[in-house]
Design brief:
There is one protein chain. The two termini are 31 Å apart. The strands form 2 sheets. A 6-stranded mixed beta barrel has the order 3-4-9-6-8-7. A two-stranded antiparallel ribbon has the order 2-10. The protein has 12 helices and 12 strands. It has 2 domains: 2-45 and 257-379, no CATH class; 62-239, no CATH class. With 384 residues, it is an alpha+beta fold.
Length: 384
């Protein structure tokens, strides 16, 4: 009986129920795109650090795990390497640069200096890894290869600002790695000594007596399970340094925390709006058919039958709206596939859809409560 009542009313009022289904579809599209944007921006900030072949990153002390603010000297490398439990260390330097493209706007990229063969140096999916410590060779990530049209053996020019002048350097591509963006920019990896020469700097020439400085040190452990013990040991034995695991490191990259917080807030408010919209629609529906509900109850329909019929309508309309929104999102994602900041992952999509499936019944609880409180005689105007 409940199934018959639910679908009979939906069939007779197709336009009205389709309208609310389209509203849910728009909410679904918005939620999925916010989830994809959060994932895309998050990946753009954490890809390189998350995929490091290391367990710890060492920072200068009291910089709150800020990579741009951290300064570590080469003299500290041996001190870290001598700590029991440390297998290998690799210095890493970060800077920003622009790749000059013929007939196109320059491509902003992260210039990352690494020690060949040490933690922090990327693997090569094509070509080979960095080998020489001083050569003007580069391993580029797949995003640079795609956007700049570069392949193994090609040369390209990067521009940096040194002092008050623009400086141009030519690098040869020896390898292409997977996607390893940092600070939402594709990455170019060069030997650390070359990085020190070509990075943006306030002074063109570095004092030879000055210690070689980079940003952080990647630390690979003999036993990754003993990370917390080794962290305490390093911080006790090596002065002016503090350690962070990779998750802490990428969560403190510039912009990561505020971006994720903002997008998660937007997603939460969108879901709340969805609950209010669905609840408001079905509450209005209920108020418009109080007399009909009174008739049903007067001829013997139970509260359970009426409640099941209403819940079925809510569930069907919600599923219809989510299905339409999912199809619309799929079409838009294919059309916007070139926008790297939007990344759909199975986990994010499933989480969003399950959440949306729950907001329909939640939003309709008020209307069901109203249905259960309808008195047949009063609804028919026969109560004294």
């Amino acid at each position: 009986m409940a199934f018959y009542l639910a679908f009979k009313e939906m069939w007779r009022n197709k336009g009205r129920f389709l309208l609310i289904g389209l509203v849910i579809a728009l909410i679904t599209t918005l939620v999925l795109f916010i989830a994809a944007l959060a994932e895309g921006l998050g990946l753009g900030n954490r890809e390189y650090i998350e995929n490091l072949d290391a367990e710890l990153l060492m920072y200068q002390k009291n910089v709150e795990f800020s990579i741009p603010s951290s300064r570590v000297g080469r003299s500290q490398l041996n001190n870290i390497a001598r700590v029991p439990g440390v297998k290998e260390v690799g210095p890493i330097g970060f800077a920003s640069t622009s790749i000059i493209l013929s007939g196109q706007e320059p491509l902003d990229a992260s210039l990352i200096g690494v020690e060949p063969g040490k933690p922090g140096a990327p693997p090569a999916r094509e070509g080979h890894v960095l080998q020489s410590r001083r050569s003007k060779e580069a391993v580029i990530d797949q995003n640079v290869a795609l956007e700049a049209g570069l392949k193994i053996g090609d040369t390209f020019t990067i521009k940096t600002i040194q002092g008050t002048e623009e400086k141009f350097y030519t690098l040869r591509v020896v390898g292409i790695t997977d996607s390893r963006r940092y600070s939402i920019q594709p990455s170019v990896f060069v030997p650390l000594l070359a990085w020190d020469e070509i990075k943006p700097k306030a002074q063109v020439e570095r004092d030879p007596a000055q210690e070689f400085i980079f940003n952080v040190v990647a630390v690979k452990l003999d036993n990754p399970a003993s990370r917390e013990v080794i962290t305490q040991r390093i911080e006790q034995q090596v002065s002016n340094l503090e350690a962070a695991d990779l998750k802490t490191a990428y969560e403190n990259t510039p912009g990561y925390g505020p971006q994720q917080s903002t997008l998660n807030t937007q997603r939460t408010f969108t879901l709340l709006i969805g609950i209010l919209v669905i609840g408001g629609f079905f509450q209005i529906q209920t108020l418009q058919k109080v007399a009909q509900i009174g008739v049903l109850k007067a001829i013997g329909a139970s509260n359970l039958t009426v409640a099941i019929a209403a819940m079925l309508q809510i569930i069907v309309v919600t599923i219809l709206g989510i299905a339409l929104g999912g199809l619309g999102t799929l079409g838009l994602s294919l059309a916007l596939s070139s926008i790297s900041a939007i990344v759909f992952t199975p986990t994010a999509v499933v989480t969003a859809i399950v959440t949306l499936l729950l907001i329909g019944p939640l939003g309709g609880l008020v209307s069901i409560r109203l249905l259960l409180r309808v008195e047949p005689l009063r609804a028919l105007g026969l109560a004294s």
